[in-house]
## 1
Amino acid sequence: ALTQHADLAMYRAKEEGKNHYRWFDGTVAPESARLMELRNGLRRAMERGEFEVYYQPQIETATGKLSGLEALLRWKHPRLGQISPQQFIPLAEETGLIVEIGEWVLHTACAQNKAWHDAGCPKLRIAVNLSARQFAAPDLVGTVRNVLEQTGLDARFLELEITENMAMKNENLTTLEQLKDMGILLSIDDFGTQHSSLSYLKRLPVSRIKIDRSFVSGIGVDERDEAIIHAMLVIARRLHLSVVAEGVETEPQFGFLEEHNCDEIQGYLFFKPQSAEHIGKVLRDSLPG
Ligand code: C2E
Ligand code: CA
Ligand code: CA
Ligand code: CA
C-alpha cells in the first residue's frame, strides 16, 4: 500500500513501546525492516554462535593495577555486521530472549575467568550485567549457583551489575541477599541515572556503585557534574561502598577522579572492551617479571 503520500501515513507505534513504524493499513514500513531483522535474528544468533563476550579491564586508581573485568556482549550479524548492545539488548529484553542470552553470557564469562585463573593470570573479578527480565525469571539464584558449579569459579570472583530500578524493587531484595550470601559482589550500574532514592543504599546488600559516564564526561566542562560526582564519592565512602567511574576517556577526568579518591576507573583512556584472546594477552603482560 505504498502511495505517494505514504510517508504522511506513517506513525510511530509508541503505544507498543517499540521503535518501529507501521502504515495505517497495518503493514510494516521499510524503516522497521532493520529492527525486524534484528529482532528475528536474535534466536538464530544464539543457535549459530554469533554472540561473543568482550571484556573491559578496570583499574585501581591509586596503583594503576588491574582490578577487575566487565563482560560486555557483542553481536556479529552475518549481514549487518557489528550491532551495538544498545540496539539489540532492548530487543532481547522485549522478546524475553535476554534470559537465555544473559545466562549464556554469565556462563561464558565465568568459564573464561576461571580459565584465566587456571592459566596463572592475576586473579581478577569478572562483572556481568543482569537484566530486569532475569530477576523476573524463575530461580535466578539457582541459575547463578549452577553456573558457578559448572565452571568452577569461586563466587568471590563474580560481580553482578544491576541497575537502580532493579535494586529498588522490593521483590528482588531476597534474591539480592541470597546472591550476596553466596559471596558474590553486587554493584549498582549507571548510578545516578534512574529514579531512586538514596535511602535504598542503606538497606541493600550492594558493595559497589558505578558512576555513569554521563557524569564523568562533565568533568572539566560542567561544575554541576563535578559536584554530583564529589557528593556520590562522599556518600559512598560514608556507607562503605567502593566506587568505579565509568567511561573515563581523558587525563583531566582521571585526574579529578584520582584527586577525589575514586577507587576504580573503567574507560577508553586505559582499555576498550576487547576479545577474550586480546584481554588474555593484556592479563599475561600484567604479570610481574
Ligand atoms: P554498561 O553496562 O553501562 O556498559 C558500559 C558501556 O560503556 C559499554 O558499552 C562500554 O563499551 C562503554 N564504555 C566503556 N568505556 C567507555 C569510554 O571510555 N567511553 C565510551 N564512550 N564508552 C565506554 P557497550 O559494550 O556498547 O554496552 C552498552 C550497554 O549494553 C551496557 O552498558 C549494558 O547496559 C548493555 N549490555 C552489554 N552487555 C550486556 C549483557 O551481557 N547483558 C545485559 N543485560 N546488558 C548488557
Ligand atoms: Ca555495566
Ligand atoms: Ca554502566
Ligand atoms: Ca551506561
Note: Confidence is low (pLDDT under 50) at residues 1-19.
## 2
Amino acid sequence: MSAMIEIKNVSKWYGSFQVLTDCTTSVSKGDVVVVCGPSGSGKSTLIKTVNALEPFQKGDITVNGVSVGDAKTDLPKLRSKVGMVFQHFELFPHLSVTENLTLAQIKVLGRSTDEAKTRGLKMLDRVGLNAHKDKFPGQLSGGQQQRVAIARALSMDPNVMLFDEPTSALDPEMVGEVLDVMVQLAHEGMTMMCVTHEMGFAKKVSHRVIFMDQGKIIEDCKKEDFFGDPEARSPRAKDFLSKIL
Ligand code: ADP
Ligand code: MG
C-alpha cells in the first residue's frame, strides 16, 4: 500500500519549547488513523504540520509524494488536496451555506460558479443538509455547521482529510450526527487522520491508533492491539485510556 502521508523524524520548537520530538509515522491510502493523547501533547500541532499550517524545523513530511517542507512546493495547491476540519467550524459567517461551499473551489481550483455549485450541493446532500443551502451559518446548529464544514472540505476533492477534535465543541446530542458522517467517509475509503477522543469512533472505523504524550508518538499500533491488549500498552497510554473509557 502506498503512503498518502509520510511523517519522518519531525521535530518542532516554539522558541525554546520543543513541541514535537522525532515524530515518525505514515498513513496509507484509505487508512483511518486516530490520534489521541492528553491535552497539550502536540496532537493539533502534528496534524497542522501535515498541511503546512505549522512549520517544523527537523524531519520531512510528504503528502501524496509531495514534500511539505520543500520551499519549492506549491503550498496552496497541496493544501487544496488536504481537507481540514477543526474543532470550531470556521465557516464564513457572512456567506450562505452554498457560498461557503463554493468559494474555495472557485478561487483555488478555478472552477466555474456552476461547476462549484453542482459539486458543493452534491457534498451537502451527502451530509444530509440540502434543505439548508440558502441559510447562513448562524442559522444552523453546531452539528449542522460542522457537517457543512466537512462538505466544504469534500467539495475540493481532497486526497486526505484531517480532523482536529471535530466533535469536542459540540453539545452532546450533536456529536452523533457528525461522527456518522465521518464513519460514512471512512467506509467509502477516504484517507483520514483524526485527532479525537471519541474512542467509539476509533474502535468502529479506525485502522490504527497513535497515542501522543509530551510531543512524542508513544504508541502507533493496530486498533485491535490498542484496545484489545491493554497489558501491552505503555503506562501513560493505559492511564489515559483509564480516564476516558
Ligand atoms: P494538543 O492538541 O495535544 O492539546 P497542541 O499541539 O495544541 O496540543 O499544543 C502542544 C503544546 O504546544 C502545548 O504545550 C501548547 O501550550 C504549546 N503551543 C501550542 N501552540 C503554541 C504556540 N503558538 N506558541 C507556543 N506554544 C504553543
Ligand atoms: Mg488540540
Note: The two ends are 32 Å apart (CA to CA).
